Amino acid sequence: MASRAPVCSVTLKPSLNACYDHLGTCIAAKPPTGCEAVLGGIVVTRSTPAKPHIFYGWFVVAGTFAVTFVGFGCAYSFSAFVVSLQQDFAASRGSVAVTFSLAGFFYFGLGVVSGPLADYWGARRLAVIGMVLTGLGLVVASVARSLPQVYAAYGLGVGLGIGCSYVPAVGAVQRWFIRRRGFASGIAVSGIGVGTLLVPPLAAFLIAALGWREAYLILGILSALVGGGMALLIEDDPHHRGLNPDGAPLESNGEPTRATGISVSAAIRSRRFIGLYAACFICAFGLFVPFVHLVPYALDHGLPQSSAVILLAMIGLGSTAGRFILGGAADRLGRPPSFMAMFVGMALSFVIWAFSTELWALAAFACVFGLFYGGFVALAPAVVTDYFGGRNAGSIIGILYTSVAIGTLIGPGAAGYAFDLTHSYTLPILASVAANIIAAAIVAATSKADR
User: Fold this and answer.
1) Which segment of 53-62, 111-120, 226-235, 423-432 scores lowest on mean pLDDT?
2) For the chain, which has fewer Cβ within 10 Å, the N-terminal or C-terminal residue?
3) Three-state SS for 260?
C-alpha cells in the first residue's frame, strides 16, 4: 500500500507556523512509526510507508517452474538411458523408444482430464499428486525385470504424473497474469528447459557411477520430494488473495474482475482452435524425436557418451533462453504471429541436424532447436488464453495437448523403427522439417479467423 502524505485537517484556526514546525518534526522522526498530534485543532499525521511486497503470482510461477523442472527433466533424460536399456533387455532401438512414446502420450493426453479437474478441484492438489506419481513411476522402473515392465512403470508412472501436474499448473499461471502473461508463462515452463539442461547430465553421471537402476531410484525420490513440495506454492487464481491479475487491487466494491472467456464447446468448434490443434498434431510427430534419438545419433557418429549427453543439455539451454527471450518478445510483437514463427524456427533447426555429424554442428542444432521449442511451449497456453479467455483455460489447453499426445505416441517410436530398417535417421529428420512447415502454414491461415 502506498504511503500517504501527512494530512492537516482544520477544525479551528491555529498558528500555521506551529503546524509547519510540528510537521517537519514528524517527517524527520526516527524510527518512522507514525506521528500524530493536535495543534489548536489541526491534526498532523505522518503515516508509515508500507513495505514493498512480491505479487504472489510469481510464487505460482516458481511452483510451476519446479513442477516442469522435475517432471520434464526426468522425462527428457530418457535418451541417456536408451543404450543401457537396449543392452540390459536385448531390445531394438524402436522398442526402447516406445517407452518414451507411451509416457509422452499419457502426459499430454491426460491434460484433457486434468485440465477440467483443475478448474473444479484445484491445480495444487493435482500438481502434488502428479509429482508423487512421477517419483513412484521412476522408483518402480528401477526394479523392472523386462521391457514391458519398464513400459508400465515409466510409461504409466511418469506419463500419468506429468499429465496430472503439467496442464493444471500452467493453466493456473495464465489466470494470475494478463499484461505479462507471455513472460510469466515463459518463466514457468522454462523449468522444462532448465530440467533438460541439468537432469540428463546428472542421470548420465548416476548411470556411469551406479547403474541405470540406481539412477532411476534416486531421480524418483528427488522427484517426489522436490516436485511435490514446491507444488504446494501453486494457487488457482488471485481472487482468493483479494487481487486481480497482475496484482491489481479489487474494484472499490470489493468484487474481483472475473476471468472472461467463451465456453469449452464454443472454443473447440472455432476455426482458431481447429487450426491450433491441427498444427500441434502435425508438429508433434517430429517434436520429440531429438529428445529420444539425438544421443544415440551422436554415439552412432563416434561421439563419446559424455559429449552426446551434453547435447541434451544444449537443448535445455536453448529452451530456457527461448522461454525467457521469445516469451517476453511475443508480449510486445504479438503472441499469435510469434507462435507461427516457432514452427518455422524448428523446421530450420531440423535442416541443420540433417547435415550435422560433428559435435559443434550438433550443438548448434541443439541450441537452435531448443530456442524455438522453448518458445513454442511458452506461447501455446498463452495463445489459447488470448484467443478464448481465462475462464476455461485449463480445459481448453488440456484438449489442445491431446493433439501433441497422439504425435508423441507415434513419432519417436516410428523414428526408432525407421532407423532399425534403414540404419539412418535421414527420413525422420526430413519428415520433421516438413511437419513444422505445414504447421506454420496452418497457423498462418487460421490465426486471423473469427472465433
Assistant:
1) 111-120
2) N
3) coil
For the full predicted model, state whether its pTM sits above 0.85: no
Cell of 151: 513400459
d(CA 414, CA 295): 17
Q: Which three cell numbers stand for residue 125?
A: 492438489
Q: Which of 189, 224, 203 is nearest to 378 (CA)?
A: 189
Q: Is the dihedral of CA 96, 98, 103, 104 positive or negative?
A: positive
Inform me whether the pLDDT recorded for 22 exceeds 90.
Answer: no
How far apart CA 443 and CA 409 sit, in angstroms, is 23
Distance of alpha carbon 169 from alpha carbon 160, whole angstroms: 14
Location of C-alpha cell 510537521:
23
Give the least confident one: 47-56, 94-103, 183-192, 398-407.
Answer: 47-56
The amino acid that residue 158 corresponds to is V
Q: Is the peptide bond before 31 cis (omega within 30 degrees of 0)?
A: yes
- The pLDDT confidence band at residue 52, using thresholds 50, 70 and 90, is low
Q: CA–CA distance from 398 to each of 159, 277, 345, 418 (Å)? A: 14, 11, 25, 30
